[in-house]
Design the sequence.
């Protein structure tokens, strides 16, 4: 048991990642020992004998990251391929967003990402994400705030953080952006970002944009009537491992039939997946695991 009380189940106050060199596991979470400072434990991958040894879990330790002043809300980890480096991004219930880097042995390079204009409307949503460029090994961190119509981003180059700046696409009215997802293309520095907003009319919209390794572009509005009311992530994005095209899947209000669009060098028109057995609105979409959640 890592923690016996994380205060609520409304947000994901933990995440896990495998280190790409040692293959050790890393868990970061909200602990009962501190509401504002993330705690972590490391799992020793190489163990003697064929049976898993529970003592392979290291002790619960404070990260030493003390920027947050209110309770943690969301935690996200992403590991650098082939390395023990892991980037951590987390938010608090005030909507402020923070970053830091695990170098395989210790935490450092703490960075305030969004503290000046946090959006309390995104406390119940994961309004940020991380993805590594697969060639350069640089980490892209993108997030949402309450005053911009485009996400903000910074790049971790392995040594330092870049200055923050906006992407190029207009995603929606300021204060309406809710969910953000990044996906990385294998053997490339290309990334895809998709963002769900609640729209100027209260109907969720879905927009996407592509990072080519040096700039954002090819922004598009994929759907103007996404399922649900923006409180759940009714979309996801991923690159396939063979052809290496990006697929964005989402619910569009057509009960029981997720829709999708594909990015290669341009966007395809909308397609429909197989209809689900029960015609209900799509509320959650998880591309990598081929799963859709719908209400009973």
Sequence:
């Amino acid at each position: 048991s890592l923690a016996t009380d994380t205060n609520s189940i409304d947000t994901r106050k933990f995440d896990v990642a495998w280190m790409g060199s040692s293959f050790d596991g890393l868990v970061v979470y909200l602990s009962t020992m501190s509401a504002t400072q993330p705690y972590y434990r490391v799992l020793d991958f190489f163990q003697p004998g064929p049976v898993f040894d529970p003592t392979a879990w290291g002790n619960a330790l404070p990260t030493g990251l003390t920027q947050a002043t209110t309770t943690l809300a969301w935690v996200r980890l992403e590991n650098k391929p082939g390395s023990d480096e892991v980037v951590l991004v987390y938010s608090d219930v005030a909507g402020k967003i923070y970053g830091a880097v695990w170098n395989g042995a210790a935490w450092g390079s703490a960075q305030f990402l969004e503290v000046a204009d946090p959006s309390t409307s995104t406390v119940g949503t994961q309004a940020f994400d991380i993805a590594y460029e697969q060639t350069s090994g640089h980490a892209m961190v993108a997030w949402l705030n309450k005053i911009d119509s485009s996400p903000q981003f910074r790049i971790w180059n392995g040594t330092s953080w870049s200055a923050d700046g906006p992407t190029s696409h207009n995603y929606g009215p300021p204060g309406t952006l809710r969910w953000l997802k990044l996906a990385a293309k294998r053997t490339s520095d290309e990334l895809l970002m998709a963002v769900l907003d609640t729209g100027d009319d209260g109907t969720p919209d879905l927009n996407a944009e592509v990072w080519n390794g040096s700039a954002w572009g090819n922004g598009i509005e994929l759907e103007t009537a996404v399922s649900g009311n923006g409180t759940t992530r009714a979309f996801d994005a991923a690159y396939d491992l063979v052809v290496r095209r990006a697929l964005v899947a989402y619910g569009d209000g057509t009960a029981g039939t997720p829709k999708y669009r594909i990015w290669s060098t341009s966007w395809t028109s909308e397609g429909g997946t197989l209809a689900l057995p029960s015609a209900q609105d799509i509320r959650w979409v998880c591309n990598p695991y081929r799963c859709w959640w719908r209400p009973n």
User: Anything to note?
Assistant: Confidence is low (pLDDT under 50) at residues 289-296.
